[in-house]
Design a protein that fits this description.
There is one protein chain. The protein has 766 residues and is α/β, with parallel strands linked by helices. Helices cover 30% and strands 18% of the residues. β26 and β27 form a beta hairpin. The longest helix is centred in the N-terminal third of the chain and has 17 residues. It starts with a strand and ends with a helix. Bound molecules: beta-D-glucopyranose. Beta-D-glucopyranose binds next to loops.
Length: 766
């Protein structure tokens, strides 16, 4: 790719396809062998062509935060060289912007690069939930919260696909760790899947229809995702209305026949002739209905057809670099900014007296390792960006793997010496590259010891220390009270270095907010004790209490809460006005609040709307994010922000009824600047839907009494017994299945009569 270089060829006119494919006509003309062959790749990155019918092959490449198109046929884990492409901020950074308009623009740029490189599908975004900060791939994922992950994912997909190329929403589903990712069974109850692990996928599918969804490597409740009919067909297609193609993660299909039957369409990469032959044999022997193979082949053909014409358009490398810089700044989170001698340390007044410490300032960490690794078009570092503004002293302070060699103690001593006389010290710390990768999980929650030792020593001689962090997921910060400021930049892509300079100097106001909680200790984290599992299983024992849902519900102190982030101004919130209308599945709640920039400079606030359900009959997280919006306000400017919540926003997944339910009663709508900084709240009374499960003999007395047609059956039975029940006896009885009264020989009915009564009661309320 070169600056503004048009890709030559017949593809430059969007909407002028040079090749149209009549999918049904092609399908009708395919042999069984050809259909089977279409359901696997030609090589690592291409679909198979059917030359005699004019069906070309198309190319797919990683993803997600930049194009990784390998120059030659090679491996898939980034070892081979790939063509230069803009390395945008990783999902961890991009998501922290909470800015769906910006994310969409980044998506458009990614789409342009994909198309200009003749690639049909970019393999991303990833919207798996950050269940533990130790997941090696968290930098590729958006958040611990499914609403946020879904909104950001949908904006990316819409942006990329607006350029006439496809996306691959991954890794579906419950791929929340890298340890044993190719075999482990994620053992998750349905309510937890529905409320935490699936909704981000659901939101992206229903709002943005990604061209493809990539199934995960792992098993879900004992079945490989690639063979999971419930996931791939019942939920994804039948419930959510997914219209695209399901592709496997690379190497995630071990037996294509059951995979096709479950709803997988395309096995990647190429894996030799045997799986194709097995599919042909299964159809011939009647073990796989031919229409199932037809459906898969049709979806592959449709993908190829919709990608035509492949290629075209131009890439303005400078403009994309500038966008990467804007996005990196927008996704950086100012966690702390305490005054020293009366004024906050950031923004810096200038570069006079500035000392930069830390190898990461000149050897930036800007992306993670594995299949997402981009070969950037250029690479900014913060030291060069700051030195462009004036004389800035530098001390590396410590060594990092892959950086220049040195002696940590000597480097530390030199940095401390320089810090004694510096006006302000900006200290660049972060996780070493090998800590964060696809394929294995992180070895630690905290920063390496050599960096913490440096921080302590520098902070001991200078009160004006601002730490700039580079890491792909939360690190513990027991040291944060020792320094005046902490700016978390995540892995900010190729322009992260200049974006940091923009933020430090106040040319751009920090605008990011945490998409994940920063805990104190690993022992406090939700999956601790269950992660990474054992003997091939990882039990999601924390259930729906993931991320802030866990910390807030259990009242666990954290370093920085979900949603937190400062900027160079402050915001005030007015009262929340909330009004409910409708009932049950038609309920909606209108919410309004006014936000004011109460400081002296412009800035952006992320207004977060949380819902609490204090009267639920199941365990619900103390609060859950349901909506958010980012507002840019000039000093003194006010804006009214409005949200509308629907029934789903108030619902929980009823494990017995196996559907979403709105339980009536009081709900509290909270608006705030983080999950622990609720600024205003309002209660609304919601008319829910009647909730009862069908009765049978094993339904308890309480369940019969709650059931509108059951209470008339069991009520008289209890009275007929004639005994006065004291409170504890009554409480005990309530939990007893009615059938047990028969087993005790004290029921006035027999088993058959009870079954008939249950059937009648069920029929009466249907
Ligand atoms: C990763 C996917 C990636 C694929 C192709 C797999 O190992 O899990 O995210 O898209 O390889 O490189």
């Amino acid at each position: 790719m070169s600056d503004a270089a048009p890709t030559p060829g017949p593809h430059d006119e969007p909407g002028q396809p040079d090749r149209t494919i009549d999918v049904e006509a092609v399908l009708a003309g395919l042999t069984l062998e050809e259909k089977a062959s279409l359901t696997s790749g030609a090589d690592f990155w291409h679909t198979k062509p059917v030359e005699r019918l004019g069906v070309p092959s198309v190319m797919v490449t990683d993803g997600p935060h930049g194009l990784r198109k390998e120059a030659q046929q090679a491996d898939h884990l980034g070892i081979g060289a790939s063509v230069p492409a803009t390395c945008f901020p990783t999902a961890a950074a991009l998501g922290s912007s909470w800015d769906v308009d910006l994310v969409r623009r980044v998506g458009e740029a990614l789409g342009r690069e994909t198309r200009a490189n003749d690639v049909a599908v970019l393999l991303g975004p990833g919207v798996n939930i950050k269940r533990t900060p130790l997941c090696g791939r968290n930098f590729e994922y958006v958040s611990e919260d499914p609403v946020l992950a879904g909104e950001v994912g949908a904006a990316l997909v819409a942006g990329i696909q607006s350029q006439g190329v496809g996306t691959s929403l991954k890794h579906y589903a419950a791929n929340n760790q890298e340890t044993d990712r190719m075999r482990v069974s994620a053992d998750v109850d349905e309510r937890t899947l529905r409320e935490v692990y699936l909704p981000a996928f659901e939101r992206v599918v229903t709002r943005a229809q990604p061209w493809t969804v990539m199934c995960a490597y792992n098993k879900v409740n004992g079945t490989y995702a690639s063979e999971h009919h419930w996931l791939l067909t019942e939920v994804l297609r039948d419930e959510w209305g997914f219209e695209g193609l399901v592709v496997s993660d690379w190497g995630a299909v071990h037996d294509r026949v059951p995979a096709l039957a479950a709803g997988l369409d395309l096995q990647m990469p190429a894996s030799g002739p045997r799986p194709d032959e097995a599919v042909v044999a299964a159809v011939r022997e009647g073990r796989l209905p031919e229409r199932v193979l037809d459906d898969a082949a049709r979806r592959v053909l449709r993908l190829v057809a919709r990608a035509q014409p492949v290629g075209g358009g131009t890439v303005d490398v400078d403009a994309h670099h500038a966008l990467a810089r804007e996005a990196a700044a927008a996704g950086s989170v100012l966690l702390r900014n305490e005054p020293v001698d009366g004024s906050p340390v950031l923004p810096l007044a200038g570069t006079d007296g500035l000392l930069v410490v830390g190898e990461f300032a000149r050897t930036p960490r800007y992306q993670g390792a594995g299949s997402s690794q981009v070969n950037p078009t250029r690479l900014d570092d913060a030291l060069t960006a700051l030195r462009a503004l004036g004389d800035v002293a530098f001390e590396p302070g410590f060594t990092i793997e892959g950086g220049p060699e040195g002696d940590d103690e000597a480097l530390r001593a030199a940095a401390v010496e320089a810090a004694r006389t510096a006006g302000t010290v900006v200290l660049f710390l972060g996780l070493p590259g090998p800590d964060e990768s696809e394929g294995y999980d992180r070895p630690r929650l905290g920063l390496p010891e050599n960096q913490v030792a440096l921080l302590e020593a520098v902070a001991a001689v200078n009160p004006r220390v601002a730490v700039v962090l580079a890491n792909g997921s939360a690190v513990s910060m027991p040291w944060r009270g020792l320094v005046a400021a902490v700016l978390e930049t995540w892995l900010g892509g190729q322009a992260g270095g200049s974006a940091v300079a923009d933020l430090l100097l106040g040319r751009v106001a920090p605008a990011g907010r945490l998409t994940e909680t920063i805990p104190h200790r690993l022992e406090d984290t939700p999956a601790f004790g269950n992660f990474p599992g054992e003997a091939g299983h990882v039990r999601y024992g924390e259930g729906v209490l993931v991320g802030y849902r866990w910390y807030d519900t259990r009242g666990i102190d954290v370093a920085y809460p979900f949603g937190h982030g400062l900027t160079y101004t402050t915001f005030g919130y007015g009262d929340v006005v909330a009004a409910a209308s409708g009932t049950g599945p038609d309920v909606s709640v209108d919410v309004r609040v006014t936000v004011t920039n109460t400081g002296a400079v412009a800035g952006a606030e992320v207004v977060q709307l949380y819902v609490r359900d204090p009267q639920a009959s199941v365990l619900r997280p103390v609060r859950e994010l349901k909506a958010f919006t980012k507002v840019h306000l000039e000093p003194g400017e006010q804006r009214e922000v409005a949200f509308t919540l629907d029934a789903r926003d108030l619902s929980y997944w009823h494990p017995g009824l196996r559907r979403w339910v709105v339980e009536g009663g009081e709900f509290v709508v909270e608006v705030g600047a983080s999950s622990r900084d609720v600024r205003a709240a309002a209660a609304v009374e919601v008319e829910g839907e009647p909730l009862w499960a069908p009765l049978d003999g094993m339904s308890t007395i309480a369940e019969w009494l709650e059931h509108p047609a059951g209470r008339d059956v069991v009520g008289p039975m209890l009275e007929a017994d004639g005994r006065e029940l004291d409170d504890s006896m009554r409480a005990m009885m309530m939990q007893m299945p009615v059938r047990v009264l028969i087993d005790f020989g004290i029921a006035p009915v027999d088993e058959d009569e009870l079954a008939a009564l249950a059937a009648r009661a069920n029929a009466a309320v249907r």
